[in-house]
Specification:
Structural class: alpha/beta
Largest sheet: 8 strands, mixed
CATH topology of the largest domain: TIM Barrel
Strand order of the largest sheet: 5-4-3-2-1-7-8-9
Number of strands: 15
CATH architecture of the largest domain: Alpha-Beta Barrel
Order of helices and strands: EHEHEHEHEEHEEHEHEHEEHEHHEHEH
Distance between the termini: 55 Å
CATH class of the largest domain: Alpha Beta
Radius of gyration: 22 Å
């Protein structure tokens, strides 16, 4: 019986053309190395033999556009996954270098391009040229601006109960990876070899994936493996904390989620925190005007005329953002927020909060919606039966 997995990542290259601080995939400290086309073809053929279908596949790096054989990876992906939604995840810097035939092939294979834009002015023109090429050839693409990175690494492997950390992580993130014959819970087991090599640690030596070529493997045994923590999970922490995006720092400590990491925003002094909090937004829905507004949350909280703000979280990424708000907001401001019907601690066990209705009395305050992106918000708003907001 065919089994469907919702999401799969494949890291087709290790190195990157940017040097982002605390890169979770270690692209800033990696050597040039690729998945390998033969490995790639064999692995997807094996997944097909196991009667596994995948809804969404994303090709990651490093930076995928550094692969000379990128189009071949794409072709193999589509060959074995004819119905999947397939996307290439890129920083967009090198898209413009490709020839017209490349874009025509992507269009033919129905491939999306997901561009993460970092605040580096020197790249802006190159990214714009790449996006123009995507438009010219009618390719679907989406962009996401990113000015902060998450950090979650610890070498204190006794920091917390591993099962608890894993349960929280799986409740928020879905990032199963396939790499050279093995299934992994996420990209970290694949990437930490670069960290070990540079800093002489031994994280990746504690790593084990699930061999998809074992004689007894089935789609059910893969699913069972993914439902339990891996030995590398003890090096992760929750909640993750945020650092401002930057380039060029390759010191070991910048990856660590602890109080000694001075780059973590919540470890900074109050004036420094405010510099980064200016870019944190929430959504406010006004039923009267049928508007969904994206507003700076700090300004909103300071200017709000109400004594209470009701907060609803609509998607999995909201939870970690909520922790971030708790760490960087002024205590007097944060006390205004009431998390409707749920505490922070109960939220971590909820993958997605879908609000069917908002209770009476909500008009006493302003309603805040924290969401990963505006499309998610519009979808959630349509499921709300009744909202009353006093202007």
């Amino acid at each position: 019986m065919k089994k469907t997995f919702d999401y799969l990542e494949v890291k087709i290259t290790e190195h990157c053309n940017m040097q982002c601080n605390a890169c979770s995939n270690m692209g800033n400290i990696s050597n040039k190395e690729e998945y390998g086309l033969q490995y790639y073809s064999n692995d997807f053929n094996r997944m097909a033999d196991l009667d596994i279908s995948i809804n969404k596949i994303r090709l990651l790096g490093g930076e995928p556009f550094l692969c000379d054989n990128l189009i071949e990876y794409v072709r193999i992906s589509r060959l074995f996954n004819p119905s999947s939604k397939i996307a290439i995840v890129t920083n967009g810097v090198d898209i413009y270098k490709r020839k017209a035939c490349f874009f025509k092939e992507l269009k033919k294979l129905n491939i999306e391009i997901h561009i993460t834009i970092y605040p580096k002015e020197a790249n802006a023109r190159k990214i714009e040229r790449g996006i123009n090429e995507l438009r010219l050839h009618g390719l679907n693409y989406k962009t996401e601006e990113k000015n902060m990175f998450e950090v979650d690494l610890t070498l204190d492997s006794s920091h917390d109960d591993v099962s608890k950390t894993f349960e929280i992580c799986r409740g928020i993130y879905d990032c199963v990876n396939l790499y050279r014959g093995f299934i992994y819970h996420c990209t970290k087991p694949i990437s930490y070899k670069h960290f070990d090599k540079k800093f002489m640690t031994h994280i990746s030596s504690n790593t084990s994936g699930f061999n998809i070529y074992d004689d007894i493997v089935t789609s059910d045994t893969i699913a069972a493996y993914l439902s339990s923590p891996n030995s590398i999970c003890k090096y992760c922490t929750f909640p993750k904390r945020m650092i401002p995006w930057g380039e060029g720092c390759k010191e070991q400590e910048i990856w660590y989620n602890n109080d000694s990491n001075s780059v973590i925003i919540s470890n900074m002094n109050e004036n420094e925190k405010k510099l980064y909090f200016e870019d944190v937004f929430c959504f406010v829905y006004r039923l009267k005007n049928k508007e969904l507004l994206k507003l700076n949350i700090n300004k909103l909280l300071n200017d709000c005329k109400h004594d209470v703000l009701y907060l609803w979280c609509f998607d999995k990424y909201s939870i970690n953002k909520l922790y971030f708000l708790n760490e960087v907001l002024d205590d007097n401001i944060y006390k205004k927020i009431i998390i409707a019907d749920r505490s922070i601690h109960s939220l971590i066990n909820i993958k997605i909060c879908i609000i069917d209705s908002v209770p009476d009395g909500i008009a006493a305050g302003c309603v805040l919606f924290i969401s990963h992106d505006i499309k998610t918000m519009y979808s959630a708003i349509r499921r709300i039966k009744k909202v009353e907001i006093n202007e």
